[in-house]
Design brief:
Elements: H1 2-17, E1 20-23, E2 30-33, E3 38-41, E4 46-49, H2 57-69, H3 73-82, H4 89-101, H5 105-118, H6 123-135, H7 139-153, H8 158-174
Helix pairs in contact: 2-3, 2-4, 3-4, 4-5, 4-6, 5-6, 6-7, 6-8, 7-8
């Protein structure tokens, strides 16, 4: 019994330490992700220590989003923080998203507002900002973001549908339904 427990433990260690194939946003393509503090090196085809001098911002951003979308918010935030040029809407939105998911709402809102200042038509950042406002109970501010999303892409886009659903659910819960 002890030997089988050791084998199981070793197998789990190998599985958890190795790279993870996470779906990225779009086209069925995927992005390799690694355990916390590491980045997938495409040339070496293995996980290596994360270092902003070695990896281009685009690769760090792609892997950070892959981690965040699979629910590893702390690892995603760490990679977003390694990006050298954080003055890009996608990076600021990612920092907002990961901080929001980690419960750091003030930081998240500040990052979302920076992303929107750079790109006022960034519907995804507005959706996530609105979702943050919903969690904080600021439905009036969430509805302002919903109106901006409607202006940007109408009512048929995913960002509008997601934020509208979050607002409707909050209203329903507040009314006791």
């Amino acid at each position: 019994m002890r030997k089988s427990a050791l084998i199981l433990s070793a197998a789990l260690t190998l599985v958890l330490a190795g790279p993870v194939f996470a779906a990225s946003g779009g086209g069925g393509s995927g992005t390799q992700t690694c355990k916390n503090g590491q980045v997938w090196d495409k040339k070496k085809k293995k996980c290596v220590q994360a270092n902003s001098q070695i990896f281009p911002d685009s690769e760090l951003t792609e892997q950070a989003w892959a981690l965040a979308r699979k629910g590893d918010f702390e690892a995603g935030r760490q990679l977003f923080e390694l990006v050298a040029d954080k003055n890009k809407p996608e990076v600021l939105n990612g920092l907002g998203y990961t901080n929001r998911k980690l419960g750091q709402f003030d930081q998240a809102i500040a990052y979302y507002n920076q992303a929107i200042a750079l790109d006022p038509n960034y519907a995804e950042a507005r959706e996530y900002l609105g979702e943050g406002y919903v969690v904080l109970g600021k439905l009036d501010l969430a509805k302002e973001q919903l109106a901006e999303i409607k202006r940007i892409c109408g009512t048929a886009c995913e960002e509008y549908a997601e934020l509208n659903e979050a607002i409707e659910e909050a209203v329903k819960q507040a009314s006791g339904q």
